[in-house]
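name: query_chain
kind: protein
chains: 1
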Amino acid sequence: MNKAELVSAIAKRADVPASTVDSVLAGLQDELVEAITRGEKVAVSGLLTVERTQRSARTGRNPQTGESIEIPAANTVKVTAGSNLKKAASNVPV
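structure:
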């Protein structure tokens, strides 16, 4: 499902205009980006948690040449599924 399909599905389910849903999703995106930039953790109970984490510097290996390379430390984003998402995934047959 892409963003347009998500907007359409939410608009239909909530019985609101698609433009309203699109604005809400844009606002959610802006708030998530700003919170992560500030180093804050964002939790939507039952759905997901998003937080900034730090990855240490480490030594890696170039798969083509086998040469060792230094990979610098970096900030990254961690998304953890909430209980409702975990439950939905576990109910799908493998």
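note: The CA atoms of residues 5 and 28 lie 17 Å apart.
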